[in-house]
Amino acid sequence: MSKSPGQRFRDAVAEEHPLQVVGAINANHALLAKRAGFKAIYLSGGGVAAGSLGLPDLGITGLDDVLTDVRRITDVCDLPLLVDVDTGFGSSAFNVARTVKSMIKFGAAAIHIEDQVGAKRCGHRPNKEIVTQQEMVDRIKAAVDARTDDSFVIMARTDALAVEGLESALDRAAACVEAGADMVFPEAITELDMYKLFASKVNAPILANITEFGATPLFTTDELAGADVSLVLYPLSAFRAMNKAAENVYNAIRNDGTQQNVIDTMQTRMELYERINYHDFEQKLDALFAQKKS
């Protein structure tokens, strides 16, 4: 019997230290990440908002928006997928439970759920508001209770560092693990030694979010391993590069009247075909047509 996505995610955390988890904004990028050798991938809530909806990451995205992208990724890529579910997509334990069950059904391996209020913000933006520790603990309990697969990973994200300080963030992380969280995601960490404090405070793997242009320095995997970090997240690196490249191409075509000056920045047709296994599909189509003719 094949392992569940959640178990494969847990195995990846155990086998690679720290586990690099790279953001894949769509199914094509999931395949590229696998080709590059990554053992786990990530779907960012901010990425779904900006990439799929063209909206800011301010709690506007709904569960179905995220599930659509989850299904598209898991349909073609077998790497375990960690999914950002914001605050659980609703105000009650019933909403959190529905989110967890849906994620498992659509093939996700893990989720992280945070302690911000419903009108949430990017974790690296100012003026965040968080719920009480008890409300966050209730979210974790609801998520754990709703699991239809015990290996599915429930990760607790806390944004408390920027709002209430380090001690509050540490207390919340410990309380979430006590409530059943499998892993901890302390957001917007500013110093390497802080990760060590979280690792010593909670008996659970710690995730470091190494996002560009945010509050956290771009620590290396070696530095993070020395700080007892178990997972390193690069949520939107490829997405940012993709957006910049697309903008450059659009401007070049518009200004130059041709794409000739940017053609060397593009993936070729044959490279695309190879990445999505185009020829395998075409050969099956050719065989079908040949069978009909005979």
Automatic annotation (TrEMBL):
Alphabetical UniProt keywords: Lyase, Magnesium, Metal-binding
Pathway-wise, it operates in: Organic acid metabolism; propanoate degradation
Q: Please list the GO terms describing molecular function.
A: lyase activity
Pfam family name, one? PEP_mutase
Q: Which residues bind Mg(2+)?
A: D84, D86
Q: Which family would the database say this protein is a member of?
A: Belongs to the isocitrate lyase/PEP mutase superfamily. Methylisocitrate lyase family.
Protein name, UniProt field: 2-methylisocitrate lyase
